[in-house]
Design brief:
alpha+beta; 8-stranded mixed β-sheet; 8 helices; about 30% strand
């Protein structure tokens, strides 16, 4: 695939941060780990990866704003562009030696997500997408799955953990989804879950309580792979209200309906 200069910058930053994470993943027992909250860990590797990404992106485009999970927002002189970065999505997986984690980088231009990169260095899978040019996994073109029946489908989800989210609401939604869909998976890295939807591995995905850096790159991937993404009310406010429902057209529609029914209890 032909990549724009901006996408090349994003890929370069993701690969460089990924190399650092892969080295640390090999010595996960020796990492210095601090507790950020119940069930939500932040590691030295996480902070180091964000600094690598920030340095690479701002070196190439010094005026762009930057939003990172660990460092917050840095306002740039260019008010039209913002990098949205999760340097280590799936931190808990990472710290437990589970190879399901990723670097996630998105670019927002004038309020519109225009490019996304998700990279899992543990298995060297690089997902890239740019608005209007398609989505790719290691240079192979991606399409969302063609399954149309919920009972034939596998959907991913996020599970609220201790101290976070509405556990009762989640169980109500899960009950409805379980009764209609063929399988449910909880993998622990939202950016990769969305990339799996783009790749047709998952037929759909939903989660509440997400942050912009969890979903921004994945939204671009899914849309460029022919999929549909909304919040759990069916609107385009995923980055604002913190929930997401995605899939191919019929599965996303069915999943959204199921989640809405569960929400009502």
């Amino acid at each position: 695939m032909l990549r724009s200069a901006l996408l090349n910058v994003m890929v370069g930053a993701a690969l460089k941060a990924g190399r650092s994470l892969k080295r640390d993943f090999g010595e996960v027992e020796n990492l210095q780990v601090s507790v950020k909250g119940p069930g939500d860990f932040v590691s030295a590797a996480d902070r180091k990866a964000e600094q690598i990404v920030k340095t690479e992106l701002l070196k190439a485009r010094p005026g762009y704003s930057f939003i990172g999970e660990e460092g917050g927002k840095v306002e740039g002189t260019d008010e039209t562009h913002t990098w949205i970065v999760d340097p280590l999505d799936g931190t808990t997986n990472f710290l437990h030696g589970i190879p399901q984690f990723a670097v996630s980088i998105a670019l927002e231009r004038n309020g519109v997500l225009v490019a996304g990169v998700v990279y899992n260095p543990a298995i060297d899978e690089l997902y890239v997408a740019e608005r209007g040019t398609g989505a790719f996994l290691n240079d192979r073109r991606l399409r969302v799955s063609a399954r149309r029946k919920p009972e034939d489908s596998v959907v991913g989800c996020g599970t609220p953990h201790i101290g976070r989210g509405d556990h009762v609401q989640y169980r109500n939604e899960l009950k409805v989804v379980q009764s209609r869909f063929g399988g449910i998976r909880r993998m622990g890295a939202c950016a990769l879950d969305l990339a799996y939807v783009a790749a047709g591995r998952f037929d759909g995905f939903w989660e509440r309580g997400v942050k912009p850096w969890d979903v921004a790159a994945g939204i671009v991937l899914i849309r460029e792979a022919g999929g549909f993404v909304t919040d759990c009310d069916g609107h385009d406010n995923m980055l604002l209200n913190g929930d997401i429902c995605a899939g191919n057209e019929p599965i996303q529609k069915a999943l959204l309906q199921s989640v809405k029914e569960g929400q009502r209890g």
